[in-house]
Each structure stands twice: as structure tokens, then as C-alpha cells.
Design a protein that fits this description.
Helices cover about 40% and strands about 15% of the residues. By secondary structure, it is of the alpha+beta class. About 10% of the residues are buried.
Length: about 300
């Protein structure tokens, strides 16, 4: 999303110019403001430019106070950049979001099916749908895992996609993220700040809740525990403060109620992983890796 200033936001209703050669999110051709934007526009237009500026100053303060940063270059000098949040949200109608989320879920299911085949029967290669070299020459292919069924029978536990809308109004997937997809923590923090900066708009619109997603993730992680115990220990392993999305690592660990660790916090004894604590070693049941495989 592009970054807008409070002045841009204040003039948006009166000085709005549709994108040239692109899809107009706000206005329908020849019909004015789209229906799902009208509640927002009516409420937002009632705010004075001074009030908009005051509220966005509050948003910037909240971003700084909450330590929301992104180190885009993994800069070890500690030059974290403040997270940039657009004061104007993107609004999608419920029906469109329902279709979009169903399509993303279908795509995630397809990737899961492909992974399961590549690590078992190789039917896709046998049928000529995937060239053998594309798999066997890929350094990310784990040959020792061929024929191994992961706990729960699933290979892909979390998936994210970068989306863009074309000039025809259709959504397209620009890239898939299957290893350590980021963005969920920032999305929740964005939602929290917007709800404080624009509370009346947040209350007026039927905003989709994010809480159920995080609860589903938490339950899924607990279910992966190989031990039958009431309190499985789940840890989120980060590369540390110099990682570009370290803020999100800490945020997710807190949101999911799991322990944030680095590699040096763990040790292996008798073919099991343990967390080093002041009271001794504690058995680890599930590790959520947030470091790319090239760092492992």
C-alpha cells in the first residue's frame, strides 16, 4: 500500500483523482462511490483537516511507542525503520473477500497436494507435469525426507500470498510464501492502531475479526506436539533482533502465548530438543521456525 500524508487524507474526498489506467477502488464507472465505501466516506468527510492531522499524529505516536519497526536490509547497526501505515484503509465488500479467501485457501490446498506428491509418489513427475530437473536440482528439496510423513500428515502449515488487482478489477497472485511468511503480526498491529485512530469508522463497519485466525494457528501448533501432554511447549525461533521482521517475531510469540527463542537458547539431549532456563532444561515439543532455511 502506498503511504499517504494527513494532508492527502484530508483532501481525499474533495480532490480525489482516479488512477490513470488502473482499477479505481473507490468509484464505480459512471456510478460514483462504491456501496461498500459509502459508510466510510460519510463518516470520514465529517472530520476536519485539523482533526485528521491530530488523529494521524496519534497513529504515528502509537507506532513509535509500540516499537513497530521493519529492518528492510537486516542492518546490524540497528537502523530499524518505523513501520509505515497508510491512514486510509483498503475496504473490500464481504462477498468479494469471501471469494478471495476461498481462492487463496484453494491455492494453499493445491500447494499442499503438490508437496505431498513430490515427497511420496512422484506422480506429477511421472505424468510429465513437472520436469524432474526442477525438483532434483532444487537445493531446497530435502532428499532424506522422501517417503517421510510429517506429524498430522501435512507438509504446509502456513501460507501467504502477495496479491495485486489488475486493471480489469481481478485479483492476481504475485508471489507465494510457504516458508516463513510474514505480515500477520503487522496486520494485527495495524488493525489495533486504526481502531484507535478511527474508532467511529471501525465500529460502523462490519470489520472481519483477526482473533479467530490466531486462535486457529495456536491450536494447530499445540496439535503438532508428538507428546500427549496438557501443556505442550511451543517455541518461536528467531534469528534475533537484527532480523528485518524481529518486531513481528516478538509480537507473534506474545499473541500466541509461546516462548520466543534463538538457536543458542536450545540444546539437544537424547534426540530431543530442550529449552535452557534458569530452573533447568525444559522439553520442547514444537518449534516454529521464523528464520529462512538459508540461515539454518
Amino acid at each position: 500500500m502506498t503511504h499517504a500524508t494527513p494532508e492527502d487524507a484530508g483532501a481525499a474526498c474533495d480532490l480525489y483523482l482516479p488512477p490513470q489506467g488502473g482499477h479505481d477502488e473507490l468509484n464505480a464507472p459512471g456510478r460514483g462511490v462504491r456501496a461498500h465505501w459509502r459508510e466510510f466516506i460519510d463518516t470520514f468527510s465529517a472530520l476536519s483537516p485539523e482533526e485528521i492531522t491530530r488523529r494521524w499524529d496519534l497513529g504515528q505516536t502509537l507506532l513509535r511507542d509500540n516499537g513497530v519497526t521493519y529492518n528492510i536490509h537486516g542492518d546490524r547497526a540497528g537502523l530499524d525503520r518505523p513501520w509505515r501505515l497508510d491512514p486510509l484503509p483498503v475496504i473490500l465488500p464481504a462477498a468479494e473477500w469471501s471469494r478471495l479467501s476461498a481462492a487463496i485457501a484453494q491455492r494453499a490446498g493445491l500447494l499442499e497436494t503438490i508437496l505431498a506428491d513430490l515427497y511420496s509418489r512422484h506422480a506429477l513427475i511421472g505424468d510429465g507435469l513437472i520436469p524432474p530437473g526442477l525438483l532434483y536440482a532444487n537445493p531446497a528439496f530435502l532428499r532424506p525426507c522422501h517417503g517421510w510423513l510429517p506429524p498430522g500428515g501435512r507438509y504446509l502449515h502456513i501460507y501467504a500470498a502477495d496479491l495485486a488487482r489488475g486493471t480489469d478489477g481481478c485479483w492476481r497472485v504475485m508471489s507465494d510464501h510457504t516458508e516463513v511468511p510474514s505480515g500477520t503480526g503487522y496486520a494485527l498491529e495495524n488493525r489495533t492502531i486504526v481502531s484507535r485512530v478511527l474508532p467511529e469508522i471501525h465500529r460502523a463497519l462490519p470489520v472481519e475479526r483477526l482473533g479467530p485466525f490466531f486462535e486457529t494457528v495456536r491450536r494447530g501448533l499445540l496439535a503438532l506436539s508428538p507428546r500427549r501432554t496438557e501443556q505442550p511447549r511451543v517455541v518461536l525461533m528467531s534469528s534475533g533482533p537484527f532480523t528485518e521482521t524481529f518486531f513481528e517475531h516478538a509480537f507473534l510469540a506474545r499473541q500466541l502465548g509461546i516462548t520466543l527463542v534463538q538457536a543458542e537458547d536450545l540444546t539437544v539431549r537424547d534426540n530431543a530438543v530442550f529449552l535452557k532456563t534458569l530452573t533447568g532444561l525444559q522439553r520442547v515439543d514444537v518449534i516454529v521456525r521464523r528464520s529462512g532455511s538459508e540461515w539454518c
